[in-house]
Amino acid sequence: MRQLQSELAMNTKRAGQLMGTIGDILQKRIEESVELRAKNSKRRLSRSYRKFFYRENGRWVVQVGSKKPYAKIQDTGGTITSKGKRMAIPRTPKARQFWPRNFPGKLRALPGSKDILVEDGPVLVPQYVLRRQVRIKGLNYLKPAIKNSKPAIKVALERYLKRSVSVAYSINARKKMSWGT
Predict the structure, then answer these.
(1) Tens of pLDDT along 114-165?
(2) pTM over cut 0.70
(3) Burial of 37 (0-12, 13-18, 19+ CB in 10 A)
(4) Distance of CA 24 to the CA centre of its chain
């Protein structure tokens, strides 16, 4: 009986290892999917995803998620509303490299408009547009990541099941040997 209990405990440990493997697969595929779809990525979002696996009501649960507040809106899209001041939306490649306060040239409001910041000079080049809210298009990286994870998860499950069947067979064989004597 003790051996059966130790084999069951080992199987629970293996199930935990399987959940960890599935979490690793999902986490890696999400990182790849974000990197593939994100423009000018500094990898903060893709690296923010972590796996969590635990037992709940006798069942194993695996989750992969991010604590970044913008992770969901980056995936699904939506409206971002500023808190207080207006947001500066870059309009040129040069503007995308700097925050307005760090912009190398001198910025000023376009005459007759408070919503457009232009680089001061002989030719006024609109660099930023100021908005209270912005609608962003989602990157839709989670669904493809989950879809791309399925073959690797299937392989991990097959390996786990083969090991489990092997353990069950060896337990059965030991029982028959002990009953036969």
Answers:
(1) 899 999 888 889 999 999 999 999 989 889 999 999 999 999 888 888 877 7
(2) no
(3) middle
(4) 11
Polymer length of the chain = 181
Tell me the three state secondary structure of residue 56.
Answer: strand
Strand arrangement of the beta sheet that strand 116-119 belongs to: 87-90, 125-131, 116-119, 107-109
Chain centroid to Cα 172, Å, comes to 43
Identify which of 13, 14, 23, 15 has the alpha carbon closest to the alpha carbon of residue 152. 23
Give the strand pairing for 87-90 and 125-131: antiparallel
Per-residue tokens: 124: 């006024």
d(CA 90, CA 102): 13
Structure tokens given for 37 = 């779809």
Tokens 């786990």 correspond to: 160
pLDDT in tens, 82-117: 888 899 999 999 999 999 999 998 999 988 888 999
H-state helical runs in the chain: 2-37, 44-47, 71-76, 93-96, 142-180
Based on DSSP, count helices (H) and strands (E) in the chain, helices before strands: 5, 8
